[in-house]
């Protein structure tokens, strides 16, 4: 989301919204102010918080409004030069700009999970999805990370919990834990000061590394598929980039967690949940 916010932040401010349509069923989660309040509004800023995107606009008669978006896992925001067909089944939100251009929220796959909310300043302040977010993992995770993570839950789920720490997804949690040489199943409340410091450093370096790649390779109109500069995640069966031990994985219903048994788990192979369920 950081690179999406940066790229749209370079393009949108000053642009006037001609119209906004929501062909996606139930994509809009608010009704006051109404969506058409944005017609004639001018974009003023684009920001990111956690995995949420905030498109800010000044709307005549309404003042500052924020279009809050969560693209979920299959949503993409693309700034097209030409308007799309209304029959495009992937379209969730169409924001029409002058000169035939269109900022389109599309969602690939069968689920409609992406959502938007139109909020006033007061609404923004009271918005739960923002209010309950934990501190940002990048660029400056909390200095007291040991306290932030002092919860009896395994790191691989704890670090993806946006209410604990914001901005880390399934892919990058594997990269971060590998970089910090920590087991995905180590509990948050079991981290030593040294381990917490290594984890903090790994968050900054791994998320920074990904963003550097995005900066180089992601341009407007914004891609449907983003580069995934992973070294560990989903690389099971390949050699560890640090020690060349074969990387192992634990498979869950809809994702995979990859780790190095030598660097992270003192040689232990973690139980494969998928296999143990089949054997039950
Ligand atoms: Zn290794």
Write the layout of secondary structure elements.
Elements: H1 2-11, E1 19-21, E2 42-49, E3 52-59, E4 63-70, E5 75-80, E6 91-96, E7 102-107, E8 115-119, H2 121-126, H3 128-131, H4 145-148, H5 155-158, H6 170-179, H7 193-217, E9 248-251, E10 256-259, H8 261-264, H9 273-279
Antiparallel strand pairs: 1-6, 2-3, 3-4, 4-8, 5-7, 6-7, 9-10
Helix pairs in contact: 6-7
Bound molecules: zinc ion (ZN).
Zinc ion (ZN) is lined by residues 240, 242-243, 245, 260, 262-263.
Word description of this protein:
It is a single chain. The protein contains 9 helices and 10 strands. The strands form 3 sheets. A 4-stranded antiparallel beta sheet has the order 1-6-7-5, with no helix packed on it. It has 280 residues and is of the alpha+beta class. The relative contact order is 0.12. The site of zinc ion (ZN) has 7 residues, from helix 8.
What key phrases describe this protein's structure?
280 residues; alpha+beta; four-stranded antiparallel sheet; elongated; binds zinc ion
Task: Report the average pLDDT across residues.
Answer: 94
Work out the helicity level.
25-40%
The SS-based structural class is alpha+beta
Number of strands: 10
């Amino acid at each position: 989301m950081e690179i999406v916010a940066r790229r749209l932040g370079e393009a949108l401010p000053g642009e006037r919204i001609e119209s906004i349509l929501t062909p996606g069923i139930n994509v809009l989660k608010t009704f006051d102010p109404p969506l058409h309040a944005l017609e004639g509004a001018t974009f003023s800023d684009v920001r990111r918080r956690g995995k949420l995107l905030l498109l800010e606009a000044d709307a005549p008669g309404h003042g500052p409004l924020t279009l809050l978006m969560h693209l979920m896992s299959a949503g993409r925001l693309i700034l097209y030069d030409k308007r799309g067909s209304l029959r495009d089944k992937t379209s969730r939100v169409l924001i029409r700009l002058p000169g035939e251009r269109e900022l389109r929220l599309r969602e690939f796959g069968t689920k409609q999970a992406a959502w938007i909310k139109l909020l006033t300043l007061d609404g923004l302040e009271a918005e739960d999805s923002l209010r309950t977010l934990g501190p940002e993992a990048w660029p400056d995770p909390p200095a007291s990370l040991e306290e932030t993570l002092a919860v009896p839950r395994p790191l691989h789920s704890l670090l993806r919990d946006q209410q604990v720490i914001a901005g880390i997804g399934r892919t990058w949690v594997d990269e971060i834990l590998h970089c910090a040489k920590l087991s995905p199943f180590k509990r948050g409340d079991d981290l030593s000061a040294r381990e917490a410091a290594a984890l903090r450093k790994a968050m900054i370096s791994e998320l920074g590394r990904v963003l550097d790649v995005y900066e180089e390779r992601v341009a407007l109109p914004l891609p449907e598929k983003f580069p995934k500069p992973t070294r560990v995640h989903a690389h099971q069966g390949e050699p560890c980039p640090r020690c060349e031990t074969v990387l192992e994985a634990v498979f869950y219903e809809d994702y995979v967690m990859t780790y190095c048994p030598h660097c992270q788990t003192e040689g232990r192979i973690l139980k494969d949940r998928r296999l143990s369920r089949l054997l039950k």
